[in-house]
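Open question from group meeting: does this chain pack into something compact, or does most of it stay loose? Before anyone orders reagents, we agreed to write out a predicted structure and look at it together. Recording both the input and the output here so the notebook holds the full record.
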Amino acid sequence: MPCMAISIGYVQSRVKKAHQLFQSSRNEEDNLLKHFQAITKGIKELKLNRSRRADFSANHLGSSVSKLRQKNTTAMKSMAVANSLGQFAQFLTLGFTITSSQSRC
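Structure tokens returned:
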């Protein structure tokens, strides 16, 4: 029984961490959408000035996209680990229950 409580606690901590990572990812996505809004507001300036367009694309959009990709990947991996551990704990509990009920008979 104590092992089940420990495994449930550990899985819950991993799920909480994954939710925090997804929140961080959503914040980065909001940041990316703000960059898109900036593009639409300043499209004339970006069309006229090649160096500003290249700078905006490389430094702002590129970094935001790569951060979003990295955060999404980390969050998905964390959630996959938490899900796998949860399923493993569930099957372990099921096996323990079946084994202990068969030994009583």
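Observations to bring back to the group:
Helices lie at 2-41, 43-48, 50-104.
The mean pLDDT is 87.
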